């Protein structure tokens, strides 16, 4: 039986199922000179490159949205519920 590859690409999406080491984890998340997205050190797909300033903008926006949601839920503020709507159907056949 042939050994299955533990890393590669499927339909342009990278995968890597090799056991990650601490050095490989750090070097995967911190790649100066690379783009905002880099291959994950373990698993399928891409992750943020923390050496790129755009990644920190994404992290800050996500954190701000999470903080805002938590503040809203802890203050007891509820979204207004939909009120029932009355629908009147005119079944007058003389309108033909």
Please describe the structure with a list of short key phrases separated by commas or semicolons.
96 residues; elongated; alpha+beta; three-stranded antiparallel beta sheet; two-stranded antiparallel ribbon; 2 helices
Strand elements, count? 5
Radius of gyration: 26 Å
Which strand order do you get reading across the main beta sheet? 1-2-4
What proportion of the residues is helical, as a percent range? 25-40%
Give a short account of the largest sheet: 3 strands, antiparallel
As residue ranges, the low-confidence spans are none
| Class from secondary-structure proportions | alpha+beta
Mean pLDDT: 87
Instruction: Give the number of helices.
Output: 2
- Tell me the β content: 15-25%
Distance between the termini: 76 Å
Note the run of SSEs as H and E. Answer: EEHEEEH
The oligomeric state is single chain
Query: What is the approximate shape?
Result: elongated
Gist?
The chain has 96 residues and is of the alpha+beta class.
Description:
By secondary structure, this protein is an alpha+beta fold. 31% of the residues lie in helices and 17% in strands. It contains 2 helices and 5 strands, in the order ββαβββα. It has helices at residues 22-29, 53-74, and strands at 7-10, 13-16, 37-39, 43-44, 46-48. A 3-stranded antiparallel beta sheet has the order 1-2-4, with no helix packed on it. The longest helix has 22 residues, at 53-74. It starts with 6 loop residues before the first strand and ends in a 22-residue tail after the last helix. The model has no long low-confidence stretch (mean pLDDT 87).
């Amino acid at each position: 039986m042939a050994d299955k590859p533990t890393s590669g690409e499927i339909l342009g999406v990278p995968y890597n199922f090799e056991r990650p080491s601490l050095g490989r984890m750090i070097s995967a998340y911190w790649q100066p000179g690379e783009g905002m997205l880099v291959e994950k050190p373990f698993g399928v797909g891409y992750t943020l490159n923390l050496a790129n300033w755009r990644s920190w903008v994404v992290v800050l926006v996500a954190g701000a949205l999470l903080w805002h949601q938590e503040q809203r839920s802890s203050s007891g503020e509820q979204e207004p519920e939909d009120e029932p709507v009355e629908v009147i159907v005119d079944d007058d056949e003389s309108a033909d």
